[in-house]
Specification:
Elements lengths: L1 H30 L8 E11 L5 E4 L7 E2 L10 E6 L4 E3 L11 E4 L6 E11 L6
Antiparallel strand pairs: 1-7, 2-6, 3-7, 4-7, 5-6
């Protein structure tokens, strides 16, 4: 019985963190206003680089009749940059206007391999126009 109590005590912080995480996730889901929510679609571009390969870029396809969606509750574009390897990646301010053209770019690859995917959520609902 003492062994069971010790085992349970070791897992208690983990279980508590899991419960808090699940509760906050459910609260965030309930916090989204249903009448303002729009269905979104996602477009992306990606590429890979070998070590020492110069900087590269790609353009995220822009669906006709759509607008870039904002992060729910914020005034920032809903984007994700997923990368692997030693490189710096960002959406290029000089070639991105967020209305017709979105360009992602990365610096020189400094590890054996680098890869990146730039993703953008779009609102294509009729109410968004």
């Amino acid at each position: 019985m003492a062994m069971l109590g010790c085992h349970l005590m070791k897992r208690w912080p983990f279980l508590l963190l899991m419960l808090i995480g699940l509760w906050s996730h459910l609260e965030a889901a309930h916090a989204q206003p249903m009448d303002d929510s729009h269905a979104t679609t996602e477009q992306s571009c990606s590429f890979g680089m070998a070590k020492g390969e110069a900087s590269q870029s790609c353009q995220v396809p822009f669906p006709v009749g759509c607008l870039v969606a904002n992060i729910p509750g914020a005034d920032k574009p809903w984007t994700t940059i997923s990368k692997g390897g030693k490189t710096f990646c960002r959406f290029d301010d000089k070639t991105t206007d967020w209305k017709t053209k979105i360009t992602g770019s990365c610096s020189r690859c400094k590890s054996d391999h680098c890869s990146v995917q730039f993703s953008v959520r779009f609102d294509c609902s009729p109410q968004s126009h």
